[in-house]
Amino acid sequence: MLHILKVLFLIGSGAAAQVITSQGTHGSYLTMQLGSALGAVFGIFVARGVSGAQLNVVWSMSLWLLGRQPWRKVPLYALSHLLGAFLGAATVYLQYYDAIQVFSGGHLSVAGPNATAGIFCSYPADHLSVWGGIVDQVVATALLLICCLAVEDRRQGLLPDGLAPVLVGALILTIGLSMGSNCGFPLNPARDLGPRLFTFIAGWGEEVFKAGGGWWWVPIVAPFVGGLLGTLIYELLIEVHHPHTPQSPGQESEAVELEEVVVDSGNNR
Amino acid sequence: MLHILKVLFLIGSGAAAQVITSQGTHGSYLTMQLGSALGAVFGIFVARGVSGAQLNVVWSMSLWLLGRQPWRKVPLYALSHLLGAFLGAATVYLQYYDAIQVFSGGHLSVAGPNATAGIFCSYPADHLSVWGGIVDQVVATALLLICCLAVEDRRQGLLPDGLAPVLVGALILTIGLSMGSNCGFPLNPARDLGPRLFTFIAGWGEEVFKAGGGWWWVPIVAPFVGGLLGTLIYELLIEVHHPHTPQSPGQESEAVELEEVVVDSGNNR
Amino acid sequence: MLHILKVLFLIGSGAAAQVITSQGTHGSYLTMQLGSALGAVFGIFVARGVSGAQLNVVWSMSLWLLGRQPWRKVPLYALSHLLGAFLGAATVYLQYYDAIQVFSGGHLSVAGPNATAGIFCSYPADHLSVWGGIVDQVVATALLLICCLAVEDRRQGLLPDGLAPVLVGALILTIGLSMGSNCGFPLNPARDLGPRLFTFIAGWGEEVFKAGGGWWWVPIVAPFVGGLLGTLIYELLIEVHHPHTPQSPGQESEAVELEEVVVDSGNNR
Amino acid sequence: MLHILKVLFLIGSGAAAQVITSQGTHGSYLTMQLGSALGAVFGIFVARGVSGAQLNVVWSMSLWLLGRQPWRKVPLYALSHLLGAFLGAATVYLQYYDAIQVFSGGHLSVAGPNATAGIFCSYPADHLSVWGGIVDQVVATALLLICCLAVEDRRQGLLPDGLAPVLVGALILTIGLSMGSNCGFPLNPARDLGPRLFTFIAGWGEEVFKAGGGWWWVPIVAPFVGGLLGTLIYELLIEVHHPHTPQSPGQESEAVELEEVVVDSGNNR
Question: Any signal peptide, and if so, which residues (chains A, B, C, D) (predicted)?
Fold first, then answer.
């Protein structure tokens, strides 16, 4: 489990490190988003066969709410993700050590022209209020959940093996391109908090928690609200359009099977 | 039905909001078009299994003309799309409220350096005459229909599940990259009118209808002409090359089946 | 047949028209190449089921050389392509009439800051000698043929339906990104000559044939040399590694079958 | 074998030549990385059916370590790749001869504003120490191996034919976008040394070995360390999560079969 988030973070955050420390000569806003998206794709490919590829604790919560996995798995995944993202941040710092030292002049700062904290976790844009940030993250995570549930819904069609991870990557690119300018679309509590803790320890100091008017808790709380909303909307949307297929126990057990096939695919082969 | 257009609009228009309000630091022309394309992809994935994924009323009209669905569905879809696009616009405005306020200085305008109306619906470029806009939209919608009919034509080959939505997204990207500079390739009457009504109410005022020499009706009327033309061209193109497969009743019923399989896929599983 | 090239040209050339006449605000070098690539993808999808999707007469020649189609088809395709590309150019001119008039100030020129002839067909960069252009086109067309033959070679694996057209598009993007700066990678005699004839008639005048030191014949002759070279290299490459599968009549008839399945797929279903 | 690296190099390096000699008008950092990625995709498609598509000697070493091929193949591939990359570099130089002469003013240099050696092989960025370069290449090659092993692991799911080469290309793009700014992600000893030897002979002189504080050996040695590390991590990661499937001889022979199916696919059809 730990490894998914590490791969995801290593790639996604490396893409940001590259663009920021090269001052835009080695990439652009698009390449950063492509990095995040492709990091998710390969994170899933690395882990999908061994322990399921739940790369966001909000998604784990949603599967629990839908009765597709026991609640005990949720905190387990959360802790594992937190550790994976922390180690991923440490690896990115190691790989970009020279570049970050030269770019920042040796002063690790959270804001200003030579800020490097944005490589590791999210900070709000200057224009964003706290309420605006909460709305942004609720809308974005709700959209993430609706589309993920749709892609994995066997009633909607049976995708060829390997297409679902690519579509999840495309979805993350989509959100990055359409909902990334307010606060960098964290979407993922553990992926945001783990690296924030790393930068706190590694020399950026307590400013990582104070910045943006105490921003740090928004990407932890708001995605759960958005995930809950998205799961509800998708279920209602399906309910409305499937009047003749009641959510009976039989239906649910089919959903469980589906989940195992699509998300934990290959585990029992 | 309502939800397809909402997802589509939320993503596509969010991508425009992001680029415009960040003044190009968080995206480019390409990322806006990718946003529109990926919005369509996930719009289709969300809705393809429950009620068909007709995301453009011109496409609905074409299917009716080809005898693949009753005419009653066409106005139903049109109304549903109009409402979905209106709600999508409201959500984008909510999510980008802070950014739009700061960028526009609180003055919601249709033209000028701080114009924000272009986030929501189409306006013609300065060089474009009304006739030029009509030609542009007729050509672009005809191309859209020809290629969509080709992708969904089972006689051309049987695509793996999940590829058709991706190809439709690629097609929208294609048109955005090759036919987007004249008037932003609206192509879709309801997707253009719904958000225009929202901006009319939300504070941009009657300028949204007056701008571009009363441009607003062109993206409503011209796509129907283009859709009709595209459907005719594709049918003739097929007729010319399939001399031995007459458009008999049997042929038509095969086409109806095809439609159900590809567009309404999963509905009856 | 006519329609493939028309769709291909309409999209690819429209993407160039958009970038040039918007002076780079509505696209970039990458979007032009994406346009060319996606134009090929949808050109193939439109025509693959009815009459084969041979969108380059050099490819038709190669299939004839390999004994997979009679020689009579080659000039037939060439003429059809020439006409299709001519009509495609006319449609692009119609759609971008306003934009071209405003950008060029009403003066249709082949060179200089307001040149618009490059929208329609290839001209060499200033640094390129005629021999350099011939080498460039021979290398690029040879690569095109080697990769197309590999993608369609059933001995290399059986691709899912719909993947081959996407790969051909990716190949054209590839060549555009790696071999496009010398002379715009024409690769395709009919696609280059048809629009050149259109611009000759439509007002750009005889300069379209005189420019670049009489460049016009290079993209007509060199691709045939490169296509021949690429076909030979691929056959030798296969021969060397398949010592136990002699190119017997049986082998050839298998190749013919393959061709029908992959290129003319769907025709006989 | 020789041909894989040649195709790969011709495309990847051509994309760099295009961007550098056009001074950025015909591409960007993203197009160079796309070129490298697509070069790998078509390199694999050209060679996958005839002799396996091992395009990196580090990958060959990993397959030997996992007992999936005899050690004798490793030096054979290394030599073949070296020659292929050398010939690829010669072809790129031939194709871009005019452009390189004009851009460099006839003086082939390794550093400075008109440097052209970076078209052919890797040089470290100014900020990078030798240790930083080693860390960068170890991390990047380890990631490459982990993800390649995951994509090809049949226990993780059975991909449709033709998807694996595309995913390998996406992986190379990923690494280019997230780990390319330190030293250009060589990752591949033969692909780096072959062209370096070509530039040494062709007129860039001994500076190609002296530059970057004697950088040349890092991209030869560090990828092997990273490859070893990546192979170990993936095996441990699988071992930890597959407690009930011991790495017995039977397991191994399954792995060998897998290898033949995925990498050498089509050879024995």
Answer: 1-17
